[in-house]
Write a structure and sequence with these properties.
Elements: H1 2-28, E1 37-42, E2 48-62, E3 83-95, E4 102-114, E5 120-123, E6 133-141, E7 144-153, E8 156-166, E9 168-174, E10 177-184, E11 189-198, E12 203-212, H2 216-222
Antiparallel strand pairs: 1-2, 2-3, 3-4, 5-6, 6-7, 7-8, 9-10, 10-11, 11-12
Length: 228
């Protein structure tokens, strides 16, 4: 009985020691220096958070006609010589000024990041009570991108239910209001869409769509660049 009690005491001691040690070990494994991209985002209340996209597996390559991996081949989404990273990633966040780096539970798998085209970017808020947006974009065709939307809400990183689709990246035209432009090379028209973003639900609702036939180059040059 004494032997059993002694063994139990040893096991309990080990349990408490390990319990205290494991969280520190886990925190130490979050090396933010390895983050592929890092951004500072404000939530609707102006509270700032650092966002880190840390690879769990990753390869680097240059865009090439003689591709090595397949994902580094030249096509609409890759030009020759573009700097590319491909792999699986986890998103972490930390309240500005805090030493605690928290895993958000969000994973981005099998993603090719074209650094040369800055396919990950932010849309800083221009209005009080509006959060900054963090966009992870992908090329869909020769003149079209889709951008998944992430933002800070109540101390957590949330993914919006809807994505931006565009040729020219979104402009911020009002509080939680955005405008995109898509070019249809079949009819030579620009389709300009206005959207309202619901922060609470993560929904992006179209409010109007206009079509214009304008000069391609002049329209692109006149488009305001709100993204960073």
């Amino acid at each position: 009985m004494k032997i059993l009690s002694k063994s139990l005491a040893i096991l309990l001691s080990l349990f408490f020691v390990l319990s205290a040690f494991i969280p520190q070990t886990h925190a130490a494994t979050v090396n933010i220096k390895k983050s592929r991209v890092s951004y500072t985002l404000k939530d609707s209340n102006g509270v700032k958070y650092s966002i880190y996209m840390i690879p769990t597996s990753e390869q680097k390559a240059k865009g090439s006609f003689n591709d090595k991996y397949g994902w580094d081949s030249v096509w609409a989404g890759v030009s020759e010589g573009d700097t590319l990273y491909h792999g699986n990633y986890k998103l972490y966040m930390s309240k500005l000024g805090s030493k605690s780096v928290i895993y958000t539970g969000i994973q981005i798998n099998d993603y090719t990041y074209n650094e040369s085209r800055k396919m990950i970017y932010s849309l800083p808020s221009k209005y009080k009570g509006q959060p900054d947006l963090f966009i992870i974009a992908e090329t869909e065709s020769s003149n079209f991108e889709s951008g998944s939307i992430y933002y800070a809400l109540n101390g957590k990183l949330k993914k919006a239910k809807d994505s931006f689709g565009y040729t020219l990246r979104p402009q911020n035209i009002g509080k939680n209001l955005f405008r995109t432009a898509g070019y249809n090379n079949a009819d030579g028209k620009w389709y300009i869409g206005d959207y309202k973003f619901n922060v609470a639900t993560g929904q992006l609702s179209e409010t109007q769509m206009l079509s214009k036939r304008v000069n391609l180059d002049s329209f692109v040059k006149s488009w305001r660049k709100d993204w960073r």
